[in-house]
Write a structure and sequence with these properties.
Elements: E1 3-8, E2 12-15, H1 16-19, H2 25-28, E3 39-42, E4 45-50, E5 56-59, H3 69-74, H4 83-90, E6 100-103, H5 108-111, E7 131-135, H6 136-143, H7 155-164, E8 167-170, E9 183-187, E10 194-199, E11 206-208, H8 231-248, E12 251-253, E13 262-268, E14 273-280
Parallel strand pairs: 5-6, 6-7, 7-8, 11-12
Antiparallel strand pairs: 1-4, 2-3, 4-5, 9-10, 10-11, 12-13, 13-14
């Protein structure tokens, strides 16, 4: 039996205008009310998949706590401790118990949790027993970033992953370290080669939406982020995925939505608009969907 559990990592506060790019403040402020500095609250939520054969797969690690205090404040990281490690502990696990970590891409708010919390020393890679699944194109992007998103990558993390001997690069096909019924969608609107894992479940497939659809407000097809590399491509990719999930009764798992972890995709034919139904604030392995 396969079980899914949502795990919170460190949370962030980022500029709302950047997060909602092409939407006016009067619109997005109703979705995520900003603070006095115009920042909106964001989760860095991860998904733990426990397979019937005993494998434990973690989808992303959030931003973590690797930043020194000055940079932690600059990038709006709320907690000083490594929240994901606490979330794993609450589930009876440590980072050493994870067999595979799937990284949709290598921006620090999705992969920074691979590093130990800042202590003034050199960066240290956690998850010593895990293989790290990354898209080949996303890996090349991290090695040779564009000036637009160069600051989103952590060179020390890239070097540690390469030196680990446990890096698994894929072109979209499911690697042997994952169950054969898993499937990847490859998306390049936010950043080239982003992997979106689709996990079959009896109640309907779950797609880890990463930064293609960071949260429920972004299900509205025209909404993009200022961080997106190719917004028009992202909109086309988003529409295609949403159409597929709405037709099949599929669900989206959101990493950045502060309130909604997962929900079913619906399509209103009259309004020609997608929405999230049956929103769940969290997923627990022992709770039925």
């Amino acid at each position: 039996m396969r079980t899914l559990t949502s795990l919170l990592g460190n949370s962030q506060q980022l500029d709302g205008g950047a997060m909602f790019g092409n939407a006016p403040r009067a619109m997005w402020a109703g979705w995520l009310p900003p603070d006095e500095a115009n920042r909106v609250p964001l989760a860095c939520r991860c998904l733990l998949v426990e397979e019937g054969d005993g494998r434990r797969v973690l989808l992303e690690t959030g931003i973590g706590a690797f930043f020194e205090p000055k940079l932690r404040e600059r990038y709006g990281v709320v907690e000083a401790g490594h929240v994901l490690l606490d979330s794993l502990a609450a589930h009876g696990l440590t980072h050493e118990d994870i067999d595979v970590v799937v990284l949709s891409h290598l921006h620090f708010d999705h992969a920074g949790g691979l590093l130990a919390a800042w202590d003034g020393g050199e960066p240290r890679l956690l998850f010593p027993n895990a293989q790290f699944v990354v898209g080949r194109e996303a890996w090349q992007r991290a090695l040779n970033p564009h000036a637009r998103d160069k600051a989103s990558f952590v060179p020390e993390l890239i070097a540690l992953l390469e030196a680990s001997g446990r890096l698994v690069l894929v072109d979209g096909a499911t690697p042997d370290c994952l169950p054969p019924d898993w499937h990847f969608h490859v998306s390049s609107g936010h950043t080239p080669g982003m992997l979106l894992a689709e996990i079959p479940m009896p109640e309907g497939a779950v797609v880890f939406a990463a930064d293609l659809i960071p949260g429920a407000p972004w299900v509205h097809v025209p909404i993009t982020m200022g961080y997106d590399r190719f917004p028009e491509l992202l909109i086309d990719e988003k529409r295609a995925l949403l159409q597929r999930l709405a037709a099949a009764g599929g669900r989206l798992f959101f990493t950045h939505d502060p309130a909604v972890a997962c929900g079913e995709v619906l399509f209103d034919a009259q309004r020609q608009r997608f929405s999230v139904a049956l929103p769940r604030a969290s997923l627990a392995a022992n709770v039925a969907w």
